[in-house]
Design goal:
Blueprint (H helix, E strand, L loop, with lengths): L14 E4 L15 H5 L2 H7 L3 E4 L27 H13 L3 E6 L9 H8 L11 E2 L26 E4 L4 E4 L14 H17 L3 E4 L24 H4 L5 H13 L7 E5 L5 H8 L8 E3 L20 H14 L7 E2 L9 H4 L7 H13 L4 E5 L20 H12 L4 H9 L4 H4 L30 H6 L4 H14 L1 H5 L1 E5 L6 E8 L2 E8 L17 E5 L10 E2 L3 E2 L1 H4 L8 E7 L1
Parallel strand pairs: 1-2, 1-11, 2-3, 3-7, 7-8, 8-9, 10-11
Antiparallel strand pairs: 4-6, 5-6, 12-13, 13-14, 14-18, 15-18, 16-17
Helix pairs in contact: 5-7, 11-16, 12-13
Length: about 575
């Protein structure tokens, strides 16, 4: 029978994502590492988070910053060693937290021994571990248009790379150095499951699985349709014909023995609410929750490189649809930021005069929804996008490839550069700003990616010293989820769906109801008549009473009888009442 995950342990949890190469560098080589993370475990415990999610730390050529894995059962020397990993894991568990590994099993690095063996000969026993195909009939192998089909790579260009030695092509939905595994082969699946069990036996508490809904492809590999000028082929590899079979098998082979303790999260581009209900229905035993992209695509035009203004009504419609769709079946993941998304305060908020207020307001809205919130490193500080001035400032393969392709196609270089600034993944990857010393205390060496120059004002030391900081607000939100069951398990009702300034909703569990009001604009906003909330308790507010426009009696109760006071720019409040 279909069911919700509201009673699962992760309903109360908050996950914190660490991008290791940008977190803390302990040895001065300019790259973050495991020892650096271990040194900040107390900081994370004090923040109140329950789960740490590590982006990939496996051996890798680093073509895609570790999402191209060359050995699944070791640690890249860039980050440390298995011994250091075990020490980090022990430190995390000692503080009552869990640790989740990032796992990429749609593809490997082309330097993985599996692919080296697959590539060695068409007769290799591992040839069928990857997708190899000849050129189109009647076309010369290796010439433009001879690729087996018209699928495009997410990192620009065709999704096929020609191998001169064998005269065939291999499939890579991402970089040419990231060949796709063939999950149709049961040997591939068992090798992956065995590796996953090895990590769980080591003490890891689960996995966040990268692009996991791409594992199943249409075995006929037909040409795709480019919708709106986008990448062709997605209809043949997103949510493919055997994906639910594969994920159910994975659950049975990997997670079932520790059911209720492990966390399985799937990144699933292109899913609908109906898809997510299938993936996350506990009765189907696939994954616990998915990352969907609907809300972070709302400010994109024909591609992520074309910006369009975000309408708050569109955002509310999207979140509301997911809240309603997974209310009785499955579970939501909640996020603004991650390693692939630009900084939310620059994207959806105001990273200028209202940086602190808007960061708090966005956090309040997100954390009060029903689902498991994810905090990306530096988000709790209100870190912002980087002021890129040259293509040389970028390290991200996706950004650099797009720029080269756009300029080669005739786009003005200045225009191509401008299209990168807002959406580039490098915005999320600048080093965490710990203090106002050189390189923000991230490293004593030269950082692999430049530190945002605003680190003198935005850093952890300054945030800890300021009781009104974004950091302390995140602590309050996380503590509220832990202490108030309505936050994790209550019903969700959207209010004011057509208002372009105010994001408002209620959460209700038994005889407790919460009202969330957030002005997501730079102008004063009027929430209107909310008379029934007279005398309600102010649980959280983001604007000092003396500075704000809303009338709160003694800072603990909603005043003005009908609650007709106005919300200051980027102000958010959470009220609680007993029914």
């Amino acid at each position: 029978m279909a069911q919700s995950s509201a009673d699962a342990w992760f309903a109360d949890a908050v996950v914190y994502q660490i991008y290791p190469r940008s977190f803390v560098d302990s040895d001065g080589d300019g790259f973050g590492d495991l020892a650096g993370i271990t040194g900040k475990v107390d900081y994370l415990a004090d923040l109140g988070v329950d789960v740490l999610w590590l982006s990939p730390i496996y051996p890798s050529p680093q073509d895609d910053n570790g999402y191209d894995i060359s050995d699944y059962q070791d640690v890249d020397p860039l980050f440390g060693s298995l011994e250091l990993f075990d020490g980090l894991l022990a430190a995390v568990h000692a503080r009552g937290m869990k640790l989740v590994m990032d796992l990429v099993v749609n593809h490997t690095s082309d330097e993985h021994r599996w692919f080296a063996e697959s590539r060695s000969s068409p007769d290799s026993p591992r040839r069928d571990w990857y997708w190899w195909r000849p050129a189109r009939d009647g076309m010369e192998p290796g010439t433009p248009g001879a690729e087996p089909n018209n699928w495009g790579s997410f990192f620009s260009g065709p999704a096929w790379e020609f191998d001169e030695a064998s005269g065939e092509y291999y499939l890579h939905l991402f970089s040419r150095k990231q060949p796709d595994l063939n999950w149709e082969n049961p040997e591939v699946r068992e090798a992956v499951y065995s590796m996953m069990r090895w990590w769980l036996d080591r003490g890891v508490d689960g996995f966040r699985m990268d692009v996991v809904n791409m594992l199943s492809k249409d075995v006929g590999l037909p040409d795709g349709v480019a919708v709106g000028g986008g990448q062709p082929g997605g209809e043949h590899f997103l949510n493919g014909p055997r994906i639910h079979e594969f994920l159910h098998e994975m659950h049975a082979e990997v997670f079932a023995s520790g059911e209720g303790r492990f966390l399985a999260v799937g990144e699933t581009p292109g899913v609908t609410v109906d898809d997510a209900r299938l993936y996350t229905d506990p009765a189907r035993a696939e994954v616990d929750m998915v990352f969907q992209f609907e809300h972070v695509d709302l400010d994109h035009g024909s591609s992520k490189w074309e910006h369009k203004p975000l309408l708050l009504t569109d955002l509310k419609a999207s979140f509301g649809r997911w809240q309603a769709g997974l209310a009785e079946i499955g579970w939501n993941s909640l996020y603004w930021n991650n390693h692939d998304q630009p900084r939310a305060v620059s994207r959806f908020g105001d990273d200028g005069v209202h940086r602190v207020r808007s960061a708090k307001a966005l956090a309040t809205v997100l954390h009060l929804h029903r689902g498991t919130p994810y905090v990306y490193q530096g988000e709790e500080l209100g870190m912002t996008n980087y002021p890129f001035s040259s293509i040389d400032d970028f390290q991200d393969i996706e950004s650099r490839n797009h720029y080269a392709e756009a300029v080669a196609a005739g786009q003005d270089p200045a225009s191509a550069l401008e299209s990168l600034r807002r959406p580039s993944r490098d915005n999320a990857r600048t080093p965490v700003q710990w203090d106002d010393s050189a390189h923000a205390g991230f490293t004593t060496g030269t950082p692999w990616l430049q530190v945002n120059p605003n680190y003198h004002e935005i850093n952890t030391v300054a945030a800890l010293a300021d009781p009104d900081s974004v950091l302390h607000h995140y602590r309050k939100l996380i503590a509220l989820r832990h202490s108030e069951p309505t936050v994790a398990r209550g019903d969700f009702t959207m209010l004011l769906p057509n208002d372009e300034q105010i994001y408002a909703f209620t959460r209700r569990l038994e005889n407790t109801e919460l009202l969330v009001l957030a002005n997501l604009s730079g102008e004063t906003a009027d929430p209107g008549e909310l008379a029934d909330w007279e005398g309600a308790e102010l649980v959280i507010g983001t604007v000092d009473i003396d500075a704000g426009d809303i009338d709160i009696d003694a800072g603990t109760h909603a005043g003005n009888a009908a609650r007709t006071g106005k919300l200051a720019p980027w102000e958010a409040v959470v009220l609680r009442r007993t029914l």
